[in-house]
Amino acid sequence: MKKGIYILIVITTILGLHSCKKQQDSFSSAALSDYYPLQVGKYITYKLDSTLFINFGQRDTVTTYQVQDRIEAQITDNLNRPAYRIVRYIRRNASQGWVANNNTFMVIPTENTIELVENNLRFQKLKLPIRKDFSWKGNSYIDTYTINSEVKYLDDWDYTYDSLDVPLTLGAVQVDSTIKVAERDEFLGQDPHIAGTLYAEKNYGVEKYAKQIGLVYKEFLHWEYQGSTHTYTGYGVKLTMIDHN
């Protein structure tokens, strides 16, 4: 009888350990630092396509620059957490020298998230676990709901890991492993090209991060159309990595 109980205990223990291993494998995740490495001196150079509406909002125009984001210092944020200051430099093309454009970001790597502070807006760009279809409220720290908020269009965005470990070609640059974060793909109202349209709004955001590099592609677009004046307001940004160190 005692021998039978002993065998039962051994079998139960083995099954329990096997179950724990399967559960750990199911929830295993790459580290955030794999896709967002932070080190003073690191830089990434991008082609920047900037979309603005001109002619009193009658049509959009795209202007192209080159920008370089450089990690220039390790600092602390207002909660005394370790953070990094990133300074953006800009030029028209490769024949010109870099000029700082007063655009500074702060990145805070926490235990479970990568936070980015830009224009006093705090985004949760990445979050654990890095697992397909995992989602989180990436803009939840941003005031999108008070009457004076100028960024109500950022409300309730669901960031989702759309794909993992995917090779990506960016012009002449190839990267082996990327993750895609789908942030928003929303259209409200009616097509502005349809006669009688009173209002329309487009919100779109997607970012791609490469292993051991960081952000390699970003696309953001927000515009609103007012039928009473037949005008658009808004802006768009597209970043495509050119090189990095």
Largest sheet, order of strands side by side?
6-5-4-3-2-1-12-11-10-9-8-7
What number of structural domains do the residues give?
2
Mean pLDDT: 90
Helix and strand pattern: HHEEEEEEEEEEEE
Helix share, percent = 10-25%
Residue windows where pLDDT falls under 50 for at least 5 positions? 19-26
The end-to-end span amounts to: 68 Å
Overall SS class: mainly beta
Q: How many beta strands in the DSSP annotation?
A: 12
Number of helices: 2
- Fraction of residues in β-strands: over 45%
Radius of gyration: 23 Å
The rough form would be described as: globular
Largest β sheet strand count, sense and barrel closure: 12 strands, antiparallel
Describe the 3D structure.
It is built from two helices and twelve strands, in the order H-H-E-E-E-E-E-E-E-E-E-E-E-E. The chain is mainly β and 245 residues long. A twelve-stranded antiparallel sheet has the order 6-5-4-3-2-1-12-11-10-9-8-7. A hairpin with a 2-residue loop joins strand 8 (158-170) and strand 9 (173-189). The longest helix has 25 residues, at 2-26. It starts with a helix and ends with a strand.
Which characteristics define this entry?
2 domains, 56% strand, 245 residues, mainly beta, 12 strands, 2 helices, globular
Provide a concise account of the structure shown:
This protein has 245 residues and is mainly beta.
